[in-house]
Specification:
heterodimer, A: about 180 residues, mainly alpha, Rna Polymerase Sigma Factor, Chain: A, Arc Repressor Mutant, subunit A, two-stranded antiparallel ribbon, 8 helices, globular, B: about 250 residues, alpha+beta, nine-stranded antiparallel beta sheet, about 25% strand
């Protein structure tokens, strides 16, 4: 539906068509927003997540011709890149503060105070960053190996193997913790 | 521990468990900021815009700007428009401030031949709760002899009805779309600029997607002379001083 507005007083403007803009991309993007918000909320602070959501949508719009019919994993991959770019920018900004940060850094991973499962957070922190991300995508985003492969840019076969090992390692770490906590 | 047990434990610790769905309006606003594939572009008349002086120097810029206000707002208190202009490399301004402004040239120069500035009143239409404001400005070539004084907060505060921090969302042909990230003065969500010059310049720089600009507008014209440009600390300081937080 279009609305047409006349502009009699504007030199050079006769008519303006205003479309509601409910396009194919918009419909898909609206469906992607909540999964993307959760994806970002799991990986960065709230303010950065808000910024990156807008940026992810923008990049998705620019690359909409590449968007597959099942766009979720593709959108996660876009968000992942935006997140990586933001992290790089933050590292650049923080370069002068590195020394202070290193001195102030606690010797071990310190879970957030409101972390509902500090033991799990500690165990995840002991996995490699790739393995930890595979675990998150598997458990939190509930993706299968093929979709995870699309997000992280690996083959589905490689993801299956690494995911299997990561799960085993994580279980082992959690078991170790449980052993250590027994009286 | 089985895989299912492990997954359940991770789900219980999901940091996004407390994330509540956004209101529908906010979802629409976010998508509108990115998805503009149904271009809301003015259909300009083929008839020529008025030219005040000279035939040799033709109209250089015709900028059509749309500002989509948030839904539900039926009437803006004043025109919500920011109009980045085209300019030549090495000059600080596009249409700039009138000669009697604080940004006036420090050398006395007659208005460049062929310059015409035709600010038009905004056109407001409403479509599904959105208001679209359309303004057409024309601007002539910038005289290379013109030099501007350094931007002053007092001048910005006095003259700018609109002052935005805006990010270039997309470049499509001669249309540049900016998302308003912050409004010091005026209200807008999106700004679309149609540039019919052959110059790729916007506010003195080639626009880049994702780049932030600071844009001030006075009487439906972009304030040039360094008052609008790429978001840099020096210019931002002028904006912050001109529009202190309340």
């Amino acid at each position: 539906m279009k609305e047409r507005a006349s502009c009699r007083t504007c030199p050079g403007v006769e008519q303006v068509d205003v479309e509601p803009r409910q396009t194919g991309f918009e419909a898909v993007a609206q469906e992607l927003i909540e999964p993307l918000r959760r994806y970002l909320a799991r990986r960065t602070d709230a303010a950065t997540a808000d910024d990156l959501l807008s940026e992810t949508l923008l990049v998705a719009w620019r690359r909409r011709d590449d968007m597959p019919a099942e766009p979720l994993a593709w959108a996660y991959a876009v968000a992942r890149n935006c997140l990586a770019n933001a992290e790089r920018a933050r590292r650049r900004q923080d370069r002068l503060l590195v020394r202070i940060w290193q001195l102030a850094r606690p010797p071990e991973h310190a879970p957030a105070r409101d972390d509902p499962d500090p033991g799990l957070a500690r165990a995840l922190a002991r996995l490699s960053s790739v393995d930890a991300e595979l675990m998150r995508l598997w458990a939190w985003e509930e993706l299968g190996p093929a979709e995870i492969a699309q997000v992280v840019g690996m083959s589905a076969n490689a993801v299956s193997i690494r995911l299997h090992r990561a799960r085993r390692k994580l279980k082992s770490l959690l078991d170790e913790q449980a052993e250590g906590e027994r009286p | 521990m089985t895989d299912d047990d492990l997954r359940d434990r991770m789900r219980r610790a999901d940091p996004a468990a407390s994330v509540r769905p956004l209101p529908e309006d906010e979802v629409r606003r976010l998508v509108a900021g990115a998805a503009l594939d149904g271009p809301v572009a003015p259909r300009f008349s083929t008839r020529k815009l008025p030219v005040l002086v000279g035939a040799a120097a033709a109209i250089a810029v015709v900028a059509g700007v749309f500002v989509l206000n948030s839904g539900g707002q039926q009437q803006a208190p004043r025109p919500d428009v920011a109009l980045p202009t085209s300019t030549q490399p090495g000059l600080e301004n596009g249409s700039g401030l009138p000669d009697n402004s604080g940004g006036r040239p420090t050398t006395s120069v007659a208005p460049p031949t062929g310059t015409t500035t035709v600010p038009a009143p905004p056109v407001t239409t409403t479509s599904e709760g959105r208001k679209t404001t359309v303004v057409v400005l024309t601007d002539g070539p910038v005289d290379p002899d013109v030099r501007c004084r350094k931007p002053e907060a007092a001048v910005l505060r006095e003259r700018a009805q609109m002052a935005f921090e805006a990010t270039v969302l997309k470049l499509e042909g001669n249309v540049v779309t900016l998302r308003v990230d912050r409004a010091w003065a005026g209200e807008a969500d999106l700004v679309e600029v149609r540039n019919t010059t052959n110059s790729p310049m916007l506010l003195g720089f080639e626009p880049e997607v994702g780049r932030k600009y600071l844009v001030a507008a006075s009487d439906l014209q972009v304030m040039g002379c360094g008052y609008s440009g790429i978001d840099e600390p020096e210019l931002r300081a002028v904006y912050d001083e001109a529009f202190p937080k309340r």
